[in-house]
Amino acid sequence: MKNAFNLLLAGSCLLALSCSKDDDPDPPSGDVALVKTQVIGFEQSGTPDLTVNYFYDGQRRLTRSLFSSGDSITLEYLSGQIIERSYSGPFLYSEVTYFLGTTGLVDSSARSDGQLLTGVSYDGDGYRVELREYDGGNALVSRHVHSYTGGNEVASYSYGHNGSLDYSQANAYDTGHPNSLGHAAQGQAYLGKSSANVNTQVVRTDHSANQSVTYRYEYDYDSGGRIATVRTFIDLNLSATQHFSYY
């Protein structure tokens, strides 16, 4: 649950990675369309396109993310907790247990190697407002604070263990278009509410280096008004293109 910034952070969603399999049944219908596939094209790096397939259970919860790279992530739902396992091919390389609070949202997590623990806080509307990370000795490693206006996350701040501001992030939105890639559309409602609208720009500042990077996002929509394509620009240069389909 690191607050690492990447191309997929603000323009879409933090969907997991893996290979492809088509024998899972379609999820039941609901008010929110679930994401079915994502194809990511990396425009500048020369990295091959990556295709992601997402699968859900009868309660519309994400169960598997399968990538064309051969990696995968699975989610097991137990009473009061969720176990996330990440695989490189057939080999398990990471396991995280998420513990749910009384509202059904994740309020803490623990990595199986004991090296990273987290605590999460939400506001009264179910938006995550703080994430704290601790090492295996329960010492604070970092703290991430989020603020919202009109149902959208407008700013976030990342602090080091000593309280110093390491990073800040300012977000802008197109309030005329709803966000069809939120947590509910990914079968991950247990992560809290997502921003209501599409994110059009992020300015991320590294305060230790006194440098800022601007990420800009452009969208195409399908006939249902859902996000079909996201183009990510870094300092005006097209960096990645994502295509989405839905169940």
Index terms:
247 residues; 16 strands; mainly beta; single chain; disordered N terminus
Task: Please outline the helices and strands.
Elements: E1 35-42, E2 50-56, E3 62-67, E4 71-78, E5 81-88, E6 91-100, E7 106-111, E8 117-122, E9 128-134, E10 140-149, E11 152-160, E12 165-178, E13 197-206, E14 211-221, E15 227-234, E16 237-246
Antiparallel strand pairs: 1-2, 1-16, 2-3, 3-4, 4-5, 5-6, 6-7, 7-8, 8-9, 9-10, 10-11, 11-12, 12-13, 13-14, 14-15, 15-16
Description:
The chain is an all-beta fold and 247 residues long. Helix content is 0%, strand content 56%. It is built from no helices and 16 strands. The two termini are 27 Å apart.
Can you describe this structure in just a few lines?
This protein is mainly β and 247 residues long. The chain has no helices and 16 strands. It has a 16-stranded antiparallel beta barrel.
Sheet of most strands:
16 strands, antiparallel, barrel
Secondary-structure element order, as H and E? Answer: EEEEEEEEEEEEEEEE
Helix content: under 10%
Strand content: over 45%
- Biggest sheet: strand arrangement: 1-2-3-4-5-6-7-8-9-10-11-12-13-14-15-16
Give a count of the beta strands, DSSP E runs of length 2 or more.
16
Average pLDDT score:
90
The N- to C-terminal Cα distance equals: 27 Å
Broad shape: globular
User: What integer value in Å does the Rg equal?
Assistant: 18 Å
Q: Uncertain segments of ≥5 residues (pLDDT<50)?
A: 1-21
Number of helices: 0
Q: Structural class of the helices, strands and pairings?
A: mainly beta
